Amino acid sequence: MLKPIAEAIDSQQFEVAEQLLKDLPAERRENPWVEFYEARLAEGKGDWSTAKQGYRQLLPSVNNPQLIAKLRQGLDRLAKAEEKQRQQEKAEQHLELEKIK
């Protein structure tokens, strides 16, 4: 049941992934993998703060090595994306300052 969600996220079909997550029975929603895919979906949609919060909340409560690795990879992707965004903003500010001069 979770594989179609992962595939939809990987192929950037976020609406499909969101609907699949909503359609899960209530008892399945407590699965840590479901929580991971919810955070992964938020990351894919560009909601980095929600994704980071989801990854960080889940990490201490999980003992599955595969899931732990995926959570750490998600946090690493977010950190790199945020750093890239900061560098881009600095470059844009530098260009603006050069134009003013």
Topology (elements, then pairings):
Layout: H1 3-10, H2 14-22, H3 32-44, H4 48-58, H5 65-100
Keywords:
mainly alpha; 5 helices
Task: Describe the 3D structure.
This protein is 76% helix and 0% strand. It has 5 helices and no strands. α2 packs antiparallel against α3, α3 packs antiparallel against α4 and α4 packs antiparallel against α5.
| Global outline | elongated
Instruction: Count every beta strand, where a strand is a DSSP E run of 2 or more residues.
Output: 0
Helix and strand content put the structural class at mainly alpha
Nearest-angstrom radius of gyration? 17 Å
Query: What fraction of the residues are assigned to beta strands by DSSP?
Result: under 5%
What is the count of DSSP helices, taking H or I runs of 4+ residues?
Answer: 5
Distance between the termini: 59 Å
Summarize the amount of helix as a percent range: over 70%
Task: Give the low-confidence spans.
Answer: none
Chain-averaged pLDDT: 92
What is the helix/strand order?
A: HHHHH
Task: Give the biggest beta sheet.
Answer: none
Give me a quick take on this structure.
By secondary structure, this protein is mainly alpha-helical.
